Amino acid sequence: MYRTHHCNELRKTDIGREVKLAGWVAVRRDHGGVIFIDLRDREGLTQVVFRPEENAEVAKQSHALRMEDVIQVYGKVAPRLPGTENPKLPTGDIEVLPQSLTILNRAENLPFQIDAELSNEDLELTYRYFDLRRPRLSRNLQIRHRVTQATRQYLDSQGFLEIETPILSKSTPEGARDFLVPSRLLPGKFYALPQAPQQYKQLLMVAGIEKYFQIAKAFRDEDLRADRQPEFTQIDIEASFVMPNDIYTLTEGMLAAIFKAARGIEIPLPFPRLTYREAVNTFGSDKPDRRFGMRLVDLGEVFRSSQFKVFQGALAEGGVVKAINAENFAGITIGQVDELTAIAKTFGAKGLAFIKVENGEWKSPIVKFFSEAEKEALHSKLEIAEGDCIFFAAGKWEIACEVLGRIRLRVAEIQKLTAGSTDLDFLWVTDFPLMQWSAEENKWNAVHHPFTRPKAEDLPLLDQKKFGEMRADAYDVVLNGVEIGGGSVRIHEPELQAKMFGALGVNPEEQQAKFGHLLRAFRLGAPPHGGIALGLDRLVMLICGENTIREVMAFPKNNRGQELMTHSPAEVDPRQLRELGIKLSGEKK
To answer: What's the chain's average pLDDT?
Structure first.
């Protein structure tokens, strides 16, 4: 056998035992002819010491070892010399004195040092198989494994069946751009890679499966950022005869099992709940981070008759005036002002008004427009103190809330309000809007997806065409300001589903062409059903304390959607295109 133990296994109780270890040379140190190496495998490190007086021939072999060589050693476990123990290592009390050394494979010149921090992500991704030897990334993949195992075990205990759904499916409008796959057998026709198994899992409910889950691959052709990849994984769950509370309880139990398995901690249940309106009104976000203050405060009554025309005018037009108190931020720099102003303008504000409180004085060009009564009301509502900085937003409710929500998050980042925090702030956000108006497309779009059920009390508004006032039986689960999952109760009646499609601008002919299979299924006895999908990558990212989902995926794409290790996407042989009946733009006839 190659080894009797892994490199994080040996302890004081093993002293005197003869063992075999195998792994990579992580560190090599020459102390006057005595060679010390840290031998690394997936589990950890063990120090191996080659002393000429112990075995001259083996010690001589060790002089040829280089970083990342793959070796096997056979030897005896010994205590480290007094004073050389390493309390930071589980194996720090012992070392192995080898009687034989076998070099299993040599490592050539390394693309980078594993123990060094790189700023060149493309280089890391080009050599991803080498990058994954880093203990941090190896740990992340082990945690990901524990998360998926805990998920399967918990859902199995709740009577759910794991069922795979097709990867080659049909292109349907579900919010993002599809990846298309041409069919060779049916020229001119295309499969689509699923953005989610949404329709398939609903059809499984019609099939009487009742409880389904899947660790599902999903694909969306969209611009990338830290928490997005063109292909990602979600924990996909659907159940029949359920209400939202059933999904809340199930999800909370699953997350409790996951955090117990992955981090050994208990999370408090049940999670608190906020409606969409409450979350946005108070935190400026439908995925609020509540680990710090700076709550949005409504100042409508304070400025309704104000001499400051910007605020008074916004209120007169049916808008709002809101503010946040960034405590101890009066030392804001000009560069930070410019950055925050740019953020405000990006999200619809014309500018960013603020007041700094320094040496007992309110410093801002807008203060001169405030009456003493308005100043007193501001002081009371915002609990203003020396060193604070007050930011304002005025205009439509949605714009004012989002602007201050973005400012709130950036200020918290600048002030490092959550740096080093171990808090786990779970939260349900409920009662989302059912639809939102797109001025660009001149139509209503579903906020979640077109299969989301309206709240029962809002159903009459559908016939009245008051789409903007309708709420959905939809919910998101949020952790530390990150949406980790979302779901809804689904429409199961064909008539209501057809009405919903109609409100979204899908005419009867398009309904049959794109969703006829679903409408037909609903006419054969579809049960009430609902579910949720959690982003596995985002969840593991938060558990591991990483900033991007790339750090918890084995082979991610870069921010241009490229997989640099295998140079994907790549050109293909023209013969393959001819077989598919495809001609590239600009190609000669």
So the answer is: 95
Tokens for 261, please give them.
């398995």
In the CATH hierarchy, which top-level class contains the domain 137-269+426-491+528-552? Answer: alpha beta
Structural domain spans, the chain? 12-105, 137-269+426-491+528-552, 292-415
Q: Would you state the pLDDT for residue 409?
A: 97
pLDDT of 539 over the 60 cut = yes
pTM above 0.90, yes or no: yes
CA within 13 Å, CB half, 7: 23
Find the length of the chain: 589
Buried b (16+ CB within 10 A) or exposed e, 84-121: eeeeeebbbbbbbbbeebeeeeeeeeeeeebeeeeeee
Instruction: Give residue-wise pLDDT tens across range 382-429.
Output: 999 999 999 999 999 999 999 999 999 999 999 999 998 899 999 999
Radius of gyration of the chain, Cα coordinates, nearest whole angstrom = 30
Q: Which helix (H) or strand (E) holds 343?
A: helix 334-346
Pick from 224, 272, 535, 279: nearest CA to 402: 279
Spatial distance between the Cα atoms of 137 and 144, rounded to a whole number of angstroms: 11
The DSSP result for 347-378, as a single string, is TT-S--EEEEEETTEEE-TTGGG--HHHHHHH
As a whole number of angstroms, the distance between CA 497 and CA 464 comes to 16
Mean pLDDT, range 477-499, rounded to an integer? 96
Beta-bridged to residue 288, according to DSSP, are none
Q: At how many degrees (to 10) do helices 135-157 and 244-263 cross?
A: 140
Fold of 12-105: OB fold (Dihydrolipoamide Acetyltransferase, E2P) (2.40.50)
Q: What angle do CA 233, 238, 242 make, to 5 degrees?
A: 145
Contact 513, 498 (CB under 8 A): no
**Contact residues for 361 (Cβ-Cβ < 8 A; gap 6+):** none
pLDDT at 236: 98
What kind and span of H or E run contains 438?
A: strand 435-438
